[in-house]
Amino acid sequence: MMDSKLPNVGTTIFTTIGKLAHKHNAVNLSQGFPNFGADAALLDLAQQAISSGHNQYAPMQGIYSLREVIADKIESLYGRYYHPENEITITASATQGIFTAISAFIKPNDEVVVFKPAYDCYEPAIELCGGIVVPIQLEGANFKIQWDVFKSTISHKTKMVIINTPHNPTGTILSKEDMTQLQLILEGTDIIVVSDEVYEHLVFDGNQHESVAKYKDLATRSIICASFGKTFHVTGWKMGYCAAPKELMAEFQKVHQYVVFCVNHPMQRAVAEYLRTPENYLGLNQFYQQKRDYFLSAIEDSRFIKTPSAGTYFQVLDYSKITVENDVAYAERLIREYKIASIPISVFNLNKQDNQQLRFCFAKTEETLDKAAEILNTL
């Protein structure tokens, strides 16, 4: 019998819930993708790129014009310049970027700090490389990092820390104070930071996204992973990018070239042109905040406890006033009996800690959100 390299990894919660939702024809607010179309202008640019013959391999790092406009965007937003020649790589999704970053640096027995609840692609990648996951549970209803706990966890074995802001699955964000604490604790070490910033343009209520690019010492040790699929409602394009100092990026690209070599060429052309209009991403905060507010207003009379999402397009709801069931069982029952799908948070927590919370995706049409609210208000 062949030994598995990932013996503890089974079917993901997204697949399990997705199949159940499909079977019961449930209103699906579980998986994180919009059920509305992308901007017609972006789709037209993609078609133009295909029709113009940009259908062969792109350069390994990505087309230069796209890397150039990304460099301009990062500098404009966060005040740090990444050279398009050797500090930016276009990836086949942020997930591939994260996997590649981990693969490039983690060796057997290297420790990697992961804050829980955590997006489920981090830990399998660490384990495949022989690394050791060092989990730290985020605390309280607002999922705060306890920096004294983090500091006590760091040792000579720590090779990497993975952070995620805005945070999936909780919808929280790291503050300026959080990033300053992280920088102070890591100062003087060789620890690498992988910064998952997929939802960088989805921050609400006048807050700012605190990218590692804004912090001098953090930037020198960090690999930023970002997503065009999440940003522009085209998750099926599976395209993102990574930015890092050239010494880190050189190691990243050694792995990247053998994972995918290069990324979808015509889509790169389309995104490069689309990014030249900053309003195409700067307006997303307001766009998704309106959807968050619409959803929360629609379920105002429900029995769920609600702390408005600070970022992403996910809303966590506490159902402790409704039932004492564990969250996986309740999520499955909601699908079978009430025809609405969500994601239980415990599957992402340390030791599957159950705080009676479900994650709902509000990147949906108002019609879908209305249907969902009608159900949730009856519980």
UniProtKB/TrEMBL annotation:
<dbReference type="InterPro" id="IPR015421">
    <property type="entry name" value="PyrdxlP-dep_Trfase_major"/>
</dbReference>
<dbReference type="InterPro" id="IPR015422">
    <property type="entry name" value="PyrdxlP-dep_Trfase_small"/>
</dbReference>
<dbReference type="InterPro" id="IPR015424">
    <property type="entry name" value="PyrdxlP-dep_Trfase"/>
</dbReference>
<dbReference type="InterPro" id="IPR051326">
    <property type="entry name" value="Kynurenine-oxoglutarate_AT"/>
</dbReference>
<keyword id="KW-0663">Pyridoxal phosphate</keyword>
<dbReference type="GO" id="GO:0008483">
    <property type="term" value="F:transaminase activity"/>
</dbReference>
<dbReference type="InterPro" id="IPR004839">
    <property type="entry name" value="Aminotransferase_I/II_large"/>
</dbReference>
<feature type="domain" description="Aminotransferase class I/classII large">
    <location>
        <begin position="26"/>
        <end position="375"/>
    </location>
</feature>
<keyword id="KW-0032">Aminotransferase</keyword>
<dbReference type="Pfam" id="PF00155">
    <property type="entry name" value="Aminotran_1_2"/>
</dbReference>
<protein>
    <submittedName>
        <fullName>Methionine aminotransferase</fullName>
    </submittedName>
</protein>
<keyword id="KW-0808">Transferase</keyword>
